[in-house]
């Protein structure tokens, strides 16, 4: 009896525990299922700060507009600021030993940052009259208290700014008198004169001497040379400059002496015997020496006191030369890096003694890092008072390394700050009998690991070995295993970066499993290559389980759209380039993954070139026959934003060659250029799964979702309103959104938002689209939802018809039929600007959806789709409330706990990718920008598994207590029975 | 602009600043076609402590028109945008841990020096461009401190509680009943062919008995 009650009670309790709300995230759960990695991007400039005792740091500015202070010992970020997308850093320096000075936005914004903590101290806006190169000169050797001005040349003006508070001291406008273009600002130590050296109309050489105190012009000299100049004037010594002439074949040596300017010409061919194509002067700023680079070599040329040019040395053209570094005794040093096979040679030379290397080190280098792109050197004083050198080098894959004493002290994989495209790959299946080692280790390493563990258990291990064992344990801990797991949480994230490098990251902890610099995407001197798209190429499923999955990388070699494309296929487990199909003879503007596979599970792809021809991959007869069979059902569309045309295409029967096909234009939609400009197009994710077409609403009514894979959302604005906010008035801006079928070109729905403008961010999923735009009338951002329903199936409610069989439920969804559709729409205010919108995706599509909104604050907000349901009303009926319909509010709620990035920021957020896990309730989320962030979310809570913090101990305790209780009651009842029988 | 309770150098600096920025905080000056917007971000609880913003606000950003311009805060919370064309703009403040309303700013071309600002969330007008967070944001659920009640209330706790009741109170109840009545009830149950679950009890008992 008691047992029966107990059982029913347990059932009830289990149910109630399911219904109880499970919360988002506790602070101590951070890092359990998420990870966050901080990057800075490819370093452009670096300034060392090592003079004082204390923390040694290096200050860098990068191509991602990041300025950062890095720990010189370990390469960690002390502080970092990501500037705006238009705020490109021109120059970086240190002033007064405590401020970091940055010049950005083409020399118009000068900022000072506090060196220890990165707090901005002051900011100055410098206005100029014309565009010019930005130059920054910060006086170096001065006392901290002395306020000496910072000189900035930008916008055709020379500005002097106080380094203490950023106050404007004076301005000298060069553009008023002449159209001089200043190339160099020279501040000789101790003097009150700043020298500006420039060129007027590229045929006259000018020097100005300007008073530091008030900006008055002290002296102006000029000399003309009719040949014209190429590139920049470079100072060689205090009164000598070099520049190339316009033909790039003559070196001009300019000597300024007592107000007179003397020119001297030397042919490059006299200096370099042999070819001298594409000559440039390297901006190394060595005293008395300049370096010339040609197509064949780099030469160092010494300028003697008499003005003679002596070639000192000739090195290979792949050598990278650093800027000069001033040593204590007025001596200068610079570094050269020579690339070898899987090693680099670093040599440091002193300017006064060029003949021999002061220091020569050979460092082993992973050849997956490519060539050295930049080098910055810094010195330190050893205990024996001699100079030691450390070098910061930037590699082809954008990684940053610190070399010291012939070793790599630290590396940063900063290529990951510029992810272009993301895809995923399943990990290998764990097979019985076959060890995990097949993928992650060689057999020897696997054995070694086990020996270590054995040692550890026998207490024989040294501290180093204990650490190694801990490392192995971490690696093999459940979430970081290199095998597929039951829930589908462990995957490989495959990332294509701007440097043309492919990375595979483990979702468990974000570590790099492998990385490959793709040979087909390497930029050479002839052409500039860049990756475009990353697609899954082969996903072994049934037939080809022994094959590793592979990915297809599509790139472009050249800058224009018509440049030839580069293709390569990479093994997703090892990172080996299996096939290099590039450079292909056609260009690529669009990559279409077809829903067909060949017998080896290779996915068929169509690459559309600039001439609207379709190229089929893989180029096998089997693929061609599959494509021939299905070609009637292959459609695609193209968006010509400039012309405002949307075109739909099919494949022509006649084909030009076996694997390339002519396209036939099926339909086109021309938007009126005077009133509409395309600003956004969004389609459904091709791999999205929809569970059911029917949607049961209140009163047991059914609505049928219009689910078509061939739907595109297009947003247009009036041309006047295509600029940023504030450039158009509400009356002249109109936002129009369309839902268009891409097979027939049928406009399913059109809606106009008066007084609204872009930027539009949208997401299309199932039968709905949610888009974010700016409402100028309310001056707030809005989000709208459109849901589209199939009206032709709405009559299937009649039970009698269903029984008789007169229903159309079994007719397939097709774009050929033209069903009646109805739409429902609603708009809400949303507080923040948005950078990206995505939607959660799950394996079977049963779980409800969350919108993932990347806000302007670089956070990712999860918003329940129920908040953007067009059926919301102010006073929902009882039935609607039971259905879970929320009462209508004018704004969408921002609940801080529903930020999936919690207290982290994904700086420079660019995209959010969602990947379904095998567990239906869970979706994996990967957000990328300058930073990377990964987590997993459960939009309807984890209804199909226990949560991470489930208390197993308590469950065990309860079971034990129950067992004990059963025994106690049994003994008691037994005793009672006995007593009863004795009675 | 009142500056109460500040040390002298700070006061001087502020005065200098205010001179520089004229009397109003938000001022637009014609500057090569563009205007300047100056303002201040105030985070309560830190201003009183003196000069400087909290470490949290170190990474504060002020964003114009959804990313057109991004600027940072000076130690005293001031910020400025330059070269802004006349029109109606939107300023957003991003500080981790705080919720700021976007601000609508009207830069007038006809009347330079006049700026109108209003919070878009609350539609409240601002006399000067001083932005304060509407609320603090807590990104984590707060874990309840350990207490015995939470264990008791959990399903496991309830089960244990129920067990205790059954084990210790049920025999007491049975004891208080008349033995005759119990026997009667038991017999009745046997005769009526009680539900299968109830049959398990004597069955289990018999099994246990055999093993003894």
From TrEMBL, chain A:
Q: Name one Pfam family in it.
A: Beta-prop_EMC1_N
The UniProt entry, under InterPro entries, shows:
Beta-prop_EMC1_1st, EMC1, EMC1_C, Quinoprotein_ADH-like_sf, WD40/YVTN_repeat-like_dom_sf
Q: Show the stretches that span the lipid bilayer.
A: 950-973
Database matches in SUPFAM superfamilies = Quinoprotein alcohol dehydrogenase-like
Q: Which residues form the EMC1 first beta-propeller domain?
A: 25-414
Q: Name one GO cellular component term.
A: EMC complex
For whether the record's keyword set contains Lipid metabolism, the answer is no
* Signal peptide per UniProt: 1-24
Protein name listed in UniProt: ER membrane protein complex subunit 1
Its membrane topology is listed as: Single-pass type I membrane protein
Q: Which PANTHER family match?
A: ER MEMBRANE PROTEIN COMPLEX SUBUNIT 1 (PTHR21573)
The keyword Metal-binding is assigned to this record: no
**Superkingdom as given in the UniProt entry:** Eukaryota
Compartment list? Endoplasmic reticulum membrane
Q: How does it assemble?
A: Component of the ER membrane protein complex (EMC).
- What residues does the ER membrane protein complex subunit 1 C-terminal domain cover? 765-982
Keywords carried by this UniProt record: Endoplasmic reticulum, Glycoprotein, Membrane, Signal, Transmembrane, Transmembrane helix
Q: Which family does the record claim for this protein?
A: Belongs to the EMC1 family.
From TrEMBL, chain B:
A GO MF annotation of the entry reads: carbohydrate binding
The Gene Ontology CC terms held by the record are: EMC complex
Sorted keywords for this record are:
Membrane, Signal, Transmembrane, Transmembrane helix
Q: Which Pfam family is an annotated match for this chain, by its short name?
A: EMC7_beta-sandw
Which residue windows are transmembrane per the record? Answer: 156-174
Q: Where is the ER membrane protein complex subunit 7 beta-sandwich domain?
A: 57-159
Q: Where in or outside the cell is it found?
A: Membrane
Q: Which InterPro entries match?
A: Beta_sandwich_EMC7, Carb-bd-like_fold, EMC7
Task: Please list which residues make up the signal peptide.
Answer: 1-26
| Bilayer topology | Single-pass membrane protein
The record's family statement is: Belongs to the EMC7 family.
This one is known as ER membrane protein complex subunit 7
| Lineage, broadest ranks | Eukaryota, Viridiplantae, Streptophyta, Embryophyta, Tracheophyta
């Amino acid at each position: 009896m008691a047992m029966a009650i107990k059982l029913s009670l347990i059932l009830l309790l289990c149910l109630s525990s399911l219904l109880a709300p499970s919360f988002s995230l506790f602070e101590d759960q951070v890092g359990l299922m998420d990870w966050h990695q901080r990057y800075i991007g490819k370093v452009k400039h670096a300034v060392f700060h090592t003079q004082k005792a204390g923390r040694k740091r290096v200050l860098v500015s990068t191509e991602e507009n990041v300025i950062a202070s890095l720990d010189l010992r370990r390469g960690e970020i002390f502080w970092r600021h990501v500037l705006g997308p238009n705020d490109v850093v021109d120059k970086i320096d240190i002033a007064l030993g405590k401020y970091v000075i940055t010049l950005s936005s083409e020399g118009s914004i000068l900022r000072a940052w506090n060196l220890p903590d990165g707090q901005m101290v002051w900011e100055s806006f410098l206005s100029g009259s014309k565009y010019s190169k930005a130059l920054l000169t910060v006086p170096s050797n001065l006392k901290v208290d002395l306020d000496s001005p910072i000189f900035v040349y930008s916008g055709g003006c020379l500005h002097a700014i106080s380094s203490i508070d950023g106050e404007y001291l004076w301005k000298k406008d060069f553009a008023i008198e002449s159209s001089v273009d200043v190339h160099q600002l020279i501040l000789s130590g101790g003097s009150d004169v700043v020298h500006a050296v420039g060129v007027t109309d590229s045929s006259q050489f000018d020097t100005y001497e300007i008073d530091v105190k008030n900006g008055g012009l002290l002296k102006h000299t000029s000399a003309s040379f009719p040949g014209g100049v190429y590139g920049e004037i470079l100072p060689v010594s205090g009164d000598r400059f070099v520049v190339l002439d316009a033909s790039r074949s003559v070196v001009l040596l300019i000597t300024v002496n007592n107000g007179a300017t003397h020119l001297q010409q030397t042919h490059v061919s006299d200096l370099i015997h042999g070819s001298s194509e594409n000559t440039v002067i390297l901006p190394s700023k060595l005293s008395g020496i300049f370096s010339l680079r040609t197509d064949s070599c780099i030469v160092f040329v010494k300028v003697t006191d008499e003005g003679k040019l002596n070639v000192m040395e000739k090195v290979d053209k792949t050598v990278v030369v650093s800027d000069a570094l001033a040593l204590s005794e007025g001596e200068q040093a610079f570094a050269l890096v020579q690339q070898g096979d899987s090693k680099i040679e670093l040599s440091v030379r002193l300017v006064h003694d060029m003949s021999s290397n002061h220091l020569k080190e050979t460092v082993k280098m992973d050849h997956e890092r490519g060539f050295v792109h930049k080098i910055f050197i810094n010195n330190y004083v050893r205990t024996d008072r001699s100079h030691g050198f450390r070098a910061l080098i930037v590699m082809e894959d954008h990684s940053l390394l610190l070399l010291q004493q012939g070793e790599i002290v630290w590396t940063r994989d900063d290529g990951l700050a510029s992810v272009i495209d993301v895809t995923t790959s399943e990990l290998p299946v764990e097979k019985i009998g076959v060890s995990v080692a097949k993928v992650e280790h060689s057999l020897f390493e696997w054995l070694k690991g086990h020996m270590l563990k054995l040692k550890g258990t026998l207490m024989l291990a040294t501290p180093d070995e204990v650490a190694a064992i801990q490392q192995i344990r971490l690696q093999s801990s459940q979430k970081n295993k290199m095998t597929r797991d039951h829930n589908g949480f462990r995957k490989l994230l495959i990332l294509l970066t701007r440097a043309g490098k492919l990375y595979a990251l483990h979702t468990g902890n974000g570590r790099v499993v492998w990385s490959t610099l793709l040979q087909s995407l390497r930029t050479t001197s002839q052409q500039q290559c860049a990756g475009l798209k990353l697609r899954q190429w082969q996903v072994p499923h049934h037939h080809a389980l022994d094959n590793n999955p592979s990915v297809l990388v599509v790139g472009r070699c050249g800058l224009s759209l018509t440049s030839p494309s580069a293709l390569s296929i990479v093994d997703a487990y090892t990172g080996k380039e299996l096939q290099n199909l590039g450079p292909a003879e056609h260009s690529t503007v669009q990559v279409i993954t077809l829903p067909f596979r060949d017998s080896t599970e290779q996915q068929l792809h169509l690459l559309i070139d600039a001439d609207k021809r379709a190229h089929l991959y893989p180029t096998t007869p089997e693929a061609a026959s599959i494509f021939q069979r299905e070609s009637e059902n292959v459609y695609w569309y193209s968006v010509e934003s400039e012309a405002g045309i949307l075109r739909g295409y099919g494949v022509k029967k006649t084909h030009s060659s076996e694997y390339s096909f002519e396209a036939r234009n099926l339909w086109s939609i021309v938007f009126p250029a005077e009133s509409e400009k395309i600003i956004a197009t969004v389609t459904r994710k091709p791999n999205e799964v929809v569970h059911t077409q029917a949607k049961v609403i209140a009163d047991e009514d059914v609505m049928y979702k219009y689910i078509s894979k061939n739907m595109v959302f297009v947003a247009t604005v009036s041309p006047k309103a295509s600029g940023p906010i504030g450039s158009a008035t509400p009356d002249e801006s109109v936002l129009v959104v369309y839902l268009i079928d891409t097979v027939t070109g049928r406009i399913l729905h059109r809606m106009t938002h008066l007084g609204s403008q872009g930027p539009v961010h949208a997401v299309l999923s199932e039968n709905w689209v949610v888009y974010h735009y700016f409402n100028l009338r309310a001056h707030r951002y809005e989000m709208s939802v459109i849901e589209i329903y199939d009206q032709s199936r709405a009559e299937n409610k009649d039970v009698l018809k269903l029984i008789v069989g007169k229903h159309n439920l079994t007719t397939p969804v097709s774009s050929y039929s033209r069903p009646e559709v109805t739409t429902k729409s609603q708009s809400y205010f949303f507080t923040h600007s948005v950078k990206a919108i995505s939607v959660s995706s799950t394996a079977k599509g049963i779980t409800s959806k969350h919108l993932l909104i990347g806000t302007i604050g670089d956070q990712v907000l999860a918003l329940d789709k129920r908040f953007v349901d067009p059926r919301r009303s102010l006073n929902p009926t009882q039935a609607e409330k039971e259905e879970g319909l929320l009462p209508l509010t004018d704004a969408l709620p921002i609940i801080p706990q529903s930020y999936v990035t919690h207290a982290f920021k994904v700086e420079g957020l660019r995209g959010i990718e969602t990947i379904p896990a095998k567990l239906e309730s869970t979706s994996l989320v990967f957000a990328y920008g300058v930073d990377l962030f990964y987590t997993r979310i459960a939009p309807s809570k984890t209804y199909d598994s226990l949560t991470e913090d489930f208390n197993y101990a308590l469950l065990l305790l309860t079971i034990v207590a129950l067992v004990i209780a059963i025994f106690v009651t049994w003994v008691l009842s037994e005793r009672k029975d006995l007593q009863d029988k004795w009675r | 602009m009142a500056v109460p309770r500040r040390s002298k150098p700070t006061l001087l600096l502020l005065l200098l600043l205010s001179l520089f920025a004229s009397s109003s905080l938000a001022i637009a000056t014609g500057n090569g076609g563009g205007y300047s917007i100056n303002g201040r971000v105030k985070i309560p609880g830190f201003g009183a402590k003196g000069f400087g913003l909290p470490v949290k606000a170190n990474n504060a950003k002020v964003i114009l028109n959804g990313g057109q311009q991004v600027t940072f805060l000076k130690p005293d919370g001031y910020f400025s945008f330059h070269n802004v064309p006349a029109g109606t703009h939107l300023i957003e403040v991003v500080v981790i841990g705080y919720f700021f309303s976007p601000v609508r700013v009207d830069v007038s071309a006809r009347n330079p020096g006049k700026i109108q600002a209003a919070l878009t969330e609350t539609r409240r007008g601002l006399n000067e461009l001083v932005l304060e967070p509407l609320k603090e944001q807590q990104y984590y659920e707060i874990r309840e401190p350990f207490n015995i009640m939470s264990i008791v209330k959990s399903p496991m706790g309830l089960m244990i509680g129920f067990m205790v009741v059954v084990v210790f109170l049920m025999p007491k109840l049975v004891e208080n009943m008349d033995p005759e009545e119990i026997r009667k009830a038991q017999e009745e149950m046997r005769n009526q062919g009680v539900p299968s679950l109830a049959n398990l009890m004597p069955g289990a008992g018999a099994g246990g008995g055999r093993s003894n």
